[in-house]
Design goal:
two-stranded antiparallel ribbon; Farnesyl Diphosphate Synthase; 17 helices; 2 domains; homodimer; mainly alpha
């Protein structure tokens, strides 16, 4: 199953859906679509559909709608992050203003629902609306807990379920629904998507402390600088002997490059990075295990491959990253 | 038809739809729902439905969804206006922050679509998504034309169609669709809604220059201060002998209270206020005329009454406002 061959078309159709023919408005709307993203969510829709049959035109429509929703959420995210670039292209808030960016995001959400309305699948629509509500709720909860050093692992997991895992899960369930899968299969592939979403977000949060600034495209420790408390920090606050120092650093809310380096040192010393990376890998392995009940097929193979290529993590203590990937893909 | 008796229930059900049981998130989401608004759009849904039969539970659901969309757009509007109060209650951007307000608006949009998905009416869904896209496009176009003194009357009408008239029209069409109205009746009541929307927005734009600050709840000339060029200004730029002075004032982008007073003087002197007010009244009369083909009924009477109570305007030259209202309600 050559999923990659579908992706240029998905992007092209998305652009067509967004264009209205009202020139000044289209100029704004095309801005976030100049460079396609990784198209993870459309891949999940198409592959989850492919598990149960041919990839239909309807599956392609749903894939476009879900990428449209993801794009809307990125446009809105960039507003308060004050991001001036996304995928190397100026953001709407940078090129125009934040009000225009709010409206452009809303326009993208509406476009997604316009596509879904055309598909006439109530269940798909319910899945997507639920996922967006969870996405917003997760991000609101995260916002309300900025610099909250009392955030528990459970709170964190609930937030990232909303932020990331819910739309991954919905993408998979929608793909399966479009292909007419049985309810228990829809549930199972949804769980797969959610596990992959958890793994993806936790790994992303780990890499925020470990990635090279060049690769990340942003300075290290950006989440913590913005007050977002992620799993490595929660773990270090629970187990590090430098707990009080870490608390003071975070609560001072003045994280310069040198304090960030000290935080990273503390996280590494107490094994918090390793702990969070292992957690991401566990979710990724869990995702792959959830695919086992489905018969061997090109779509299933592609989903396994997607898991192994999506999760980037620093090499675990005593294991080369190659060994980690081998662990993953050998399942 | 006692439409007012439905309104408390609409508001109450909207609150229930928005609540998720996730306490910190609910605290944010309830903020814009503390005080019900005028509920114009739900009234339009219910009355347009009532023209063609009983008001069903489905019509109530659609009315809730459309108010939810309107609330979402207000939450997003308040962000860049930097409004700290709406309906006398602190806004989300004031009480929390603008990112939370962006997310809360998105959450409200998703809630609206969740309700519409449950209704299982594809046509209603298409109407609503189209209206939201037009709403966003209208506001984006307005944003791109701030302080643009070259804005034509045609551009202005196109922008306010998107901003206001499209959702008014969609509300009416959805109400009729839910009641199983014939396609030509759906079109006709949609035109009624759009005409009323134009009238409402033009009158609002006129009152921005004429209302008492106490009644407006904001200082006079706020639109122009924010760079929004409305019909009275477009007219004055076309006909006033003080055209060049007005141009200089607007392009200086420094509108203090005394310059706003001078602008109002110029607008009044050249009849621009009167011209725009007459335009609003014409649209309002046009709306009422569009109701004529429908048989006499309590719902039709209520729609006429809604037209006459919704449009607030200063007394036209030589006519008392009472005479204007009489003109309207006598049709």
């Amino acid at each position: 199953m050559d999923i990659d061959s579908y992706l240029p078309r998905i992007h092209e159709l998305l652009v067509q859906e967004v264009l209205s023919g009202w020139e000044p408005v289209d100029r704004v709307m095309l801005q976030p679509l100049q460079m396609p993203g990784k198209l993870i969510r459309p891949r999940l829709v198409l592959l989850s559909s492919g598990l149960f049959g041919e990839i239909s035109e309807r599956a392609i429509d749903v894939a476009i709608a879900i990428e449209c929703i993801h794009t809307a959420s990125l446009v809105h995210d960039d507003i308060v992050d004050g991001a001036s670039l996304r995928r190397g292209v100026p953001t709407i808030n940078h090129l125009f203003d934040s009000h225009t960016a709010v409206l452009a995001g809303d326009h993208l959400f509406a476009t997604a629902f316009e596509i879904l309305a055309r598909c006439q699948l109530t269940e798909v629509l319910s899945e997507v609306t639920r996922a967006i509500k969870q996405m917003c709720a997760g991000e609101i909860a995260q916002d309300l807990n900025l610099f909250n050093t009392g955030l528990s692992e459970k709170d964190y997991m609930r937030n990232i379920f909303g932020k990331t895992a819910s739309l991954f899960g919905a993408a998979c369930r929608c793909g399966a629904l479009v292909a007419g899968a049985q309810p228990q299969d829809v549930r199972q592939i949804g769980l797969f998507g959610e596990h992959l979403g958890y793994a993806f977000q936790i790994a992303d949060d780990v890499m925020d402390f470990c990635g090279e600034p060049g690769t990340l495209g942003k300075p290290c420790g950006g989440d913590l600088r913005n007050g977002i408390i992620t799993l490595p920090v929660i773990r270090a606050l629970a187990v590090s002997e430098h707990r009080r120092e870490l608390l003071l650093i975070i609560e001072s809310n003045q994280l310069q490059a040198d304090t960030i380096n000290r935080v990273i040192e503390i996280l590494k010393d107490c094994g918090a990075i390793e702990y969070a990376a292992a957690c991401a890998i566990n979710y990724c392995l869990g995702a792959i295990r959830l695919l086992e009940p489905f018969p061997q097929s090109p779509a299933r193979n592609e989903l396994v491959r997607l898991c192994s290529t999506l999760i980037t993590l620093p090499g675990l203590e005593g294991k080369s990253s190659r060994e980690v990937w081998n662990m993953l893909v050998e399942v």
